């Protein structure tokens, strides 16, 4: 019985966070090195791990969270291996190494509790959107796990004058040092995205990356807030 399933067995731990296949995240937890993870994302664990939904650090930021209903995060602590997933979405693991990343709330699976994070206004879009658009910025030394509806593409914007245009409904994350502005394209409204009305894109320029998923999920994408 074990032989046909041998190829699916967990591999030896080589990093704090790593993929187990394309759709699952494996996290090596140690005491004092806690993790924030999306509520409901735990699919399995080994060892002694405790879970605290809506911990104090999250409640402090809850009023500014993109959903407006509080951050759907839990604190994971203890010693063992933790496996996370989000309805079969692809998982992308990022070691920030002192850098920062701006992430859509719906694409945030887990991140080290030692990282600095918070909700911030997306610069360059307030005038375009009327009230402003908000996202989650994470920075510092540590690991972040993102989800993508399908295998994503990572676009290197480079440092030239050309801009990279992205459908907001397909946007996963980007380097926060990039310049961002909005663009409306009335003639392309039937060719871009899945919605109706005018076509709206986000234009990125500067030095950094943009992560784009092959799916246009507009359920919680860069929600406009007052």
From TrEMBL:
Q: Which Pfam families does the record associate with it? A: AIM24
Q: What is this protein called?
A: AIM24 family protein
**SUPFAM superfamilies on file:** TRAP-like (SSF51219)
Note the superkingdom of the native organism: Bacteria
